[in-house]
Amino acid sequence: MSDKFDVVVIGGGPGGYVTAIRCAQLGLNTACIEKRINKQDEPALGGTCLNVGCIPSKALLDSSWKYHETESSLAEHGIKIKGSDLDLATMLQRKDTIVKNLTGGIAQLFKANKVTWLQGSGQLKAGKQVEFQPLDGGEAQTIEAEHVVLAAGSVPVDIPVAPVDQNLVVDSTGALEFDKVPKRLGVIGAGVIGLELGSVWNRLGSEVVVLEAVDAFLPMVDKQIAKDAHKQLEKQGLDIRLGARVTGSETTKTKVKVTYSDKDGEHTESFDKLIVAVGRRPYTEGLLSQDAGVSLDERNFIYVDSQCRTDVPGVYAIGDLVRGPALAHKAIEEGVMVAEVIMDEHTQVNYDVIPGVIYTHPEVAWVGKTEEEVKESGDAYKTGVVPFAANGRAMAAGETGGMVKFVVDEKTDRVLGMHIVGPQASELIQQGAIAMEFGATAEDLQLMVFGHPSLSETVHEAALAVDYKAIHVAQRRRKK
């Protein structure tokens, strides 16, 4: 192994592996350090996202939805199935196969791009030196680098009132591995992870209670969209209790007893399993030596500028280690930016146009500013909202719940935000992101031709609705 590289990336998750590949494409001698061991007890790339996060959870979300449809809604399409059975072991095996294929694919991309994969842990020291400790227990080695990119990601937040044992009380990783469907499941946290994992097991037959300390549902989401999502998820059977602050938990051999308080006082609930999903924190343990020179803020995030430079010249940090949303696609684009900045190509991530998605059913997605944010700024604005119930493609698919909403600057007509709850929201939201990236106006979208019949027509109608031009919904003009 070489003891000197142009670039050393610490972390092989979405941000890290993409940084390494892009650096190699630009002609830089690049190494990526990753210490993860997967379920098969083998070294693995892909980080949390591919191994125990985004990908396996989506596999289970899709599988569980197919089961739910089989049990609950195929009959209305004229498809009658008698005696369907849930084979949870096969469902979990399918999830694991998808994960293994994707993570193995990254290893092949490393080979194709001549990225050196160093299997073990890395720590940044003074002078852009990296101490590498191999997984095989061999002697630690010191690696010199012209540039170091810190991409160690994040880990679930622990709370003292519900310590995780990965048996009865689990984090997001353990929630992907239940060997049977819990009869009664508790979830602490009604954020993205809590709602997605709660949805999986609710569809498979669990009675799911979600306890959320905050009084508002999805406070980061446009209120109109969040209200509709809340209604649809509760209709599916999720028991979402807001303003419910967990104060303690107690486990027996087979049960978890949880105490929580709300406006009505103290309460106790008993569950077969409990998922703790209260957020994630940057994973900086062992990442930096005391003399590394890299600054952290009060929340333990690494301080960086707009192009992800730390206080140490030649050292960068990306993804969940730094400010901004903890999203894989944000980390990926930061990694590409850093690689190109290293080569003096002054690219920039547009942090104002990063889509967010919750992969429940219906999906929730957003990009840009909420109506509440624009209203608070004092700027004049207008909105256009159209339900999927008015869309022929949605009717044909039996997916009429939800809506598309635009928030638009009243003076310039520029799109400020787009918000969706409904079918394929994760795909449709990119239309809003593209519009915002190119500075499009509502009129630009109004003048475009959208395919018929398609879910995208609801995007078109919502843009038309901004100026009371929607054809397929009746509109009342807002009072000035």
UniProtKB/TrEMBL annotation:
The keyword Cell inner membrane does not apply. Its cofactor is FAD. It is found in: Cytoplasm. FAD binds at residues 58, 122, 320. Its EC number is 1.8.1.4. Gene3D superfamilies: 3.30.390.30, FAD/NAD(P)-binding domain (3.50.50.60). Disulfide bonds join 49-54. Keywords: Cytoplasm, Disulfide bond, FAD, Flavoprotein, NAD, Nucleotide-binding, Oxidoreductase, Redox-active center. Residues 5-335 form the FAD/NAD(P)-binding domain. It catalyses: N(6)-[(R)-dihydrolipoyl]-L-lysyl-[protein] + NAD(+) = N(6)-[(R)-lipoyl]-L-lysyl-[protein] + NADH + H(+). One of its GO terms (molecular function) is flavin adenine dinucleotide binding. Binds 1 FAD per subunit. One of its GO terms (cellular component) is cytoplasm. NCBIfam families: lipoamide_DH (TIGR01350). This is Dihydrolipoyl dehydrogenase. It comes from Alcanivorax profundi.
